[in-house]
Amino acid sequence: MKFNFSVPVLQWAGSFSKPAWEQLKSYAPPYGWQGLPHDLPDRCVRCAVVGNGGILRGSKQGKNIDSHDFVFRVNGAVIRGFEDDVGMKTSFYGFTTNTMKNALNMYRADGFTKIPQSPDTKYIFIPSHLRDYVMIAAAVWGQTVLSGNDKGDNPWKYFGNKPSKSFKILHPDFISYITHSFLQSPLLTNIKTRHLYMPSTGAHMLLTALHTCDQVSAYGFITRNYAAFSDHYYDSIKKPLVFYVNHDLKLESQLWEMLHLRRVIKLYQREGGS
């Protein structure tokens, strides 16, 4: 008897390589893939990443957004009353504990009274602080937060009664990679701002989708003519987009435009404002 920890335990998309097929095609189940078709139909996984920009107000993009296989949303993702513009589906909701709580406080009057809680929704933590690790641990274990800023908080209050598999958290290496490869802002070299800067929640989710989906469309993200639109699509009166030192939204805008021009993503853009 000898343990071999190099043997894969589960099958996943990466398991179905040509060498694996050649190795297993002659063995019947449960020991192989004999009898299975070699050529499976090709199908691209299409993802929509929905920001909260005012460009979506009156856009009538809801059906287009919901037609994607997976839909990512972030922060103050108000849906009720804006279904025609932003759709209804939420496959993944991305956030930090701080941005989630701030959104619930700041946009409650705009209709953001709870984060998306459909049965199919998964939650992606962006670990910007130790409190994110503490909160996801409590959510996974189904218990109250035991320490830190959120001590005594109940995760079910935000997420509902979700199984542990509903919670994901981005890897620090991935965050470092996207920051230094795609969004290397001058803010990182400024002694006054380098400890504050990180890509926005929307940027994290859009780049996450780009690394996990075959086709990616971005809606509600900052565009060259951002000043023509309100800060958010759910603003009752037009409000200007405010730039803070913890993000470099102009750099992000340049990246989205470049990726769109190179046909890496499809960035929703339009003229005018409302």
Automatic annotation (TrEMBL):
Pfam families (UniProt xref): Glyco_transf_29
Gene Ontology CC, one term: Golgi membrane
Gene3D superfamilies, per database record: Glycosyl transferase family 29 (3.90.1480.20)
The keyword Membrane is assigned to this record: yes
GO MF term list: alpha-N-acetylgalactosaminide alpha-2,6-sialyltransferase activity
EC number(s) recorded for this UniProt protein: 2.4.3.3
Predominant subcellular localization, coarse grouping: Golgi
Localization per Swiss-Prot or TrEMBL: Golgi apparatus membrane
Superkingdom of the organism of origin: Eukaryota
Pathway(s) the chain acts in: Protein modification; protein glycosylation
Gene Ontology biological process terms, A to Z: protein O-linked glycosylation
Keywords linked to the UniProt accession: Disulfide bond, Glycoprotein, Glycosyltransferase, Golgi apparatus, Membrane, Signal-anchor, Transferase, Transmembrane, Transmembrane helix
Membrane topology label: Single-pass type II membrane protein
Reactions listed under catalytic activity: a 3-O-[N-acetyl-alpha-neuraminyl-(2->3)-beta-D-galactosyl-(1->3)-N-acetyl-alpha-D-galactosaminyl]-L-threonyl-[protein] + CMP-N-acetyl-beta-neuraminate = a 3-O-{alpha-Neu5Ac-(2->3)-beta-D-Gal-(1->3)-[alpha-Neu5Ac-(2->6)]-alpha-D-GalNAc}-L-threonyl-[protein] + CMP + H(+); a 3-O-[N-acetyl-alpha-D-galactosaminyl]-L-threonyl-[protein] + CMP-N-acetyl-beta-neuraminate = a 3-O-[N-acetyl-alpha-neuraminosyl-(2->6)-N-acetyl-alpha-D-galactosaminyl]-L-threonyl-[protein] + CMP + H(+); a beta-D-galactosyl-(1->3)-N-acetyl-alpha-D-galactosaminyl derivative + CMP-N-acetyl-beta-neuraminate = a beta-D-galactosyl-(1->3)-[N-acetyl-alpha-neuraminyl-(2->6)]-N-acetyl-alpha-D-galactosaminyl derivative + CMP + H(+)
InterPro entries on file: Glyco_trans_29, GT29-like_sf, Sialyl_trans
Intrachain S-S bonds: 47-213
PANTHER family per UniProt: ALPHA-N-ACETYLGALACTOSAMINIDE ALPHA-2,6-SIALYLTRANSFERASE 2, ALPHA-N-ACETYLGALACTOSAMINIDE ALPHA-2,6-SIALYLTRANSFERASE 2-LIKE-RELATED
Family per record: Belongs to the glycosyltransferase 29 family.
Annotated protein name in UniProt: alpha-N-acetylgalactosaminide alpha-2,6-sialyltransferase
Protein species of origin: Mastacembelus armatus
